[in-house]
Amino acid sequence: MGADLYREFKGYLKEHLEKILAEGEQHMEESLLVFYTNQWKRYTLASTYVHHIFRYLNRHWVKREIDEGHKNVYEIFTLSLVSWRIHLFEHLDKKVMSALLKLIERQRNGETIDTGLIKSVVESFVSLGLDDNDSSKTTLDIYKKHFEDPFVAATEEYYKLESERFISENSITDYMKKAEQRLEEEDKRVALYLHESTAKALTTVCDTVLIQQHTAPIQDEFQSLLDQDKIDDLRRMWTLLNRVKDALEKLRKIFETHVRKEGASAIEKVAESALSVPTANDGENDDDEPPAPVARKKPGKSKSGAVDVDPKVYVEALLATHKRFASLVATAFRSEPGFSGALDRACKEFVNRNKVCVDGSKKSPELLAKYCDSLLKKSNKGTEDGDLDEVLTSIMTVFKFVEDKDVFQKFYSQFLPRRLVGGTSASEDAEASMISKLKVDCGVEYTSKLQRMFTDVGLSADLNSAFKEQMDRSHEKAEALDFYVLVCGQASWPLVPPKTTFNIPEELLRTYERFANYYTNKHSGRKLTWLFHLGKGELKTSYAKCGKATITLMASLYQMGILLQYNNQTSFTSGEIAAGTKLNADALKNNLELLVKLKVLILEADRYTLNLDLKSKKVKLNINLNVKAEQKAESEETHETIEQERLWVVQAAIVRIMKTRKTMRHQLLLTEVIEQLTGRFKPKVPDIKKAIDMLLEKDYLARTDGQKDMYNYVSLEDGSRLGGRRTVCIARARSSART
């Protein structure tokens, strides 16, 4: 009975669907879709009711037949779907699909359509997909075969014709807007009425037709957009080409070249400006302006051909270029690693090789260190503490691109002790912050000496407080001077002893002797080496006026030694001053010329007379100025020192490598030395070869017999056969490494 009932119901469905098919063949296009949708909804609703009515049949006869392996037996609702597919869908599918594609094309052309109609038809396609092996499961085979494949093919054809026509009639920027709009429409279309599985195939064909097939003309427009700073168009181009494999690589190369040229151009403008704008012929003045006008000259070039530029202007030009393109990368290119890497490579190039760095990549770190020095001085009144930390952070951005980090370290380690010794440091917190930033980027070894300087400053403060307390207890206040000594560890501070003798003025001698005795008693076995050329003090005049107040001169210790002699008389010959101060000829000449230049003294014949008419706009007048010629000479001397130290560092690296490897070929040794030292500086191949030759002479290395390009490490035991020569070389090498 169950078989008869099932067979009769199956026959009824066939007869019913044939009637619907005959009626459906009378409809065309959108009316066919309306008819198909209405009939599908009525049919599936009725099939649901009938399925419940035949629940007993499903539970018993149908289940038994399925369990016994009969393939053509289904539950009643599934039978209804199978019958719809066989007796109606397979006869109307082409007409329905054609109507669907035309309706979707009308929507793409801008017409308003009933998207619910498409959604209902598409859902019917999905519902008709039944698994042949298990009728309780559904598949997307019907949907993919009868809808997705023709839909994707029609999409490809539509956009191929449209894109070719549009790009031939419009600009690339307009085409990119059109392509972006079309891609957004297709994404919405999937969400609106397509099955989610279609998204991948649809996206692939759209990317191919709208972008990949037009990649070349889109890429060719990139340079023009960069030149015009069209951020929105650049973002749109990146978004589109990012959908195509390897399409961004050409853009990254163009971007890197563009940034490099823009950076070089910015520095070229700085160099040209430095050559055209006159600058003062004197040195820096941290606290006061010179009391009188000084001669001015046009800046030229150094002996090496490098242009003398203002460190602040130079570094700010580098920062402005990096900030501009970093913002572009973040905004237009979504901080994509490829473009970030291109920006870093370009910045590294123009930071180290530009019109200012004509003699190599050492000028940038020198100017960067000088800019840091100016920021961290008290004279930097234009930057608040909060802003200062931001500026220091931005400086580390430039520092990241500097190849010769050892040059920055050398100059910074010269400027820091000057700020600490001279008391010109703006803030201990700012100094500590900068050292902390350097430590993060370069490691503990890079900043260890800088940190020990701060330790010495703290210990010196305690030492001076204890000394002052003792002086207050044991001496009259009238005898006490406002006296402060900074005691520096010789190993940490790059300070050199003075090149001249100096006779301490009588007014300072007693306090000097008391401190020396105090320190010797407190720290037996230690020896103080006094660096008088770094000392400074204040001299209160009784003749020079600033309004009603008398002027206080802020002078170096050598200047104090000269001027204190004028307490006895108002005019001296240079010989008499030399006899009183014990300064050598060069030191005496430099200091006297500066005092005359600042009109503190008046030169008449060979006599230096005190200028009793000295005037100033400020009560405290700084006459302890750096001479620019001395600064240039010191800079050149520092670079020479760096070259020598680099040779030692290269030798030390070679010894470390060979001590580990024992035997190594020449080319491999060169490569490994460069890799090890690149973080500090980029060693030149001729310098490495020179270091190898020196180590061969010192018997650290030896050539392998019969192989000129192979080196062997000579151990200490092997070298002991050479007598005293080996011992001397080791001591020298270790000393060099510490330096």
From TrEMBL:
Gene3D superfamilies the UniProt entry points to: Cullin Repeats, Ring Box Chain A, domain 5, Winged helix-like DNA-binding domain superfamily/Winged helix DNA-binding domain
SMART domains: CULLIN, Cullin_Nedd8
Keyword hit for Membrane: no
Region (Disordered): 276-306
UniProt domain Cullin family profile: residue ranges: 363-596
Keyword Ubl conjugation: yes
UniProt-listed InterPro entries: Cullin, Cullin-like_AB, Cullin_CS, Cullin_homology, Cullin_homology_sf, Cullin_N, Cullin_neddylation_domain, Cullin_repeat-like_dom_sf
Pfam families: Cullin, Cullin_AB, Cullin_Nedd8
Example of a GO biological process term: ubiquitin-dependent protein catabolic process
SUPFAM superfamilies membership: Cullin homology domain, Cullin repeat-like, Winged helix' DNA-binding domain
Protein name as catalogued: Cullin
Source organism (scientific name): Blyttiomyces helicus
Organism classification: Eukaryota, Fungi, Fungi incertae sedis, Chytridiomycota, Chytridiomycota incertae sedis
